[in-house]
Amino acid sequence: MRRVSGFTLVELLVVIAIMIIIMGFSVPMFSKISFGNAVDGASRMISSQLSLARAEAVAKRQYIAIVMPGKYFDQPADGETTDEYHFRAFRAAIVKETDESKEFEFVQWFPGTEWGFLPKGAVLAEADGDAAESSETSGVESVEEYNGTELKSRHVSSKWLDSNKLESDDSTTMTVVKNGSGASAAKMVENAAGTNDYNKTKGVRAIIFQPNGRVVGGQNMYVTLVEGVAAESGSSYVLTNGNTTNMRLMKINQYTGKVTYLDVNYDK
Q: What is the pLDDT of residues 173-221, one digit of tens each?
């Protein structure tokens, strides 16, 4: 009679244990790769949105904004509290000029658009013009190569992504969209009268294109995407799992609206 051999219980348990150990090593590695890919995917999403916004601004002869909520933003009333709009969301809107410099009023969301969200693991840390300024003395951010009025690359130290990075923006370099007469924007930004906080009183950060295709603000604008998660801690947003060595710095040319990627150098 032919004898059929099989696996013993001990052998099966050993194989299962080995598989569990391998999975324990591979899952964190896969997660890290996914987060890294998220930043690349997010940069392509934002670049595409900015290019489309400029094209529509020229074609429709209107001011078109890509609104990118930061810390202060009242989400649409959907019956559920969530932080997903903060530092992860973007949407195109039609806006109009006000009497204030770099401040525009919401008219309506661009027809046919919905809110877009970055892949998990990517954060919209900045949307302003401060990448054109050097702050070497602070040890946080400095220009590696600066040629006349054009930033060539950025140097970043580990201090750049500290716990306060998402707490403030440079009001002198931001362009914002505030509540307008459109009903759908009634809760775009939190109404906090009496506060000196720029975002609360003035509006949501945005990159805005003029009808001639130029960028509003009179200078190049920059969008900074980083690997991480914007987690709410009480009333303050902090960047967790931040990776300073995985950053995409996008420059939007003030004249042509062209989006280019700048080199980023890092301190270890």
A: 788 888 765 544 445 554 444 344 444 556 788 999 999 999 998 888 8
Residues 6+ apart with CB under 8 A from 68: 89, 90, 124, 127, 204, 205, 206, 207, 223
Domain ranges of the chain: 9-266
According to DSSP, the residues that pair with 215 across neighbouring strands are 209
Helix (H, G, I), strand (E, B) or coil at 14: helix
- Name the amino acid, one letter, at 85: Y
Q: Amino acid letter at 127?
A: A
Query: Per the structure block, which two tokens stand in for 255?
Result: 């004249």
Residue 260: which H helix or E strand, with range? strand 259-266
Q: CATH number of 9-266: 3.20.20.100, 3.40.50.1820, 3.55.40.10, 3.90.380.10?
A: 3.55.40.10
Q: Report strand pairing: 116-117 vs 122-128.
A: unpaired
Give the N- to C-terminal CA distance of the chain in Å, as an integer.
69
CA distance 205 to 35: 25
Burial 4-18 (b: 16+ CB within 10 A, else e): eeeeeeeeeeeeeee
The helix/strand count (H/E) of the chain reads as 2, 12
pTM of the model: 0.75
Q: Is residue 93 classed as helix, strand or coil in its secondary structure?
A: strand
Look at residue 253 and give its three-state secondary structure. coil
Query: Following CA atoms 202, 204, 205, 207 in sequence, which dihedral angle do they give, to the nearest 10 degrees?
Result: -110
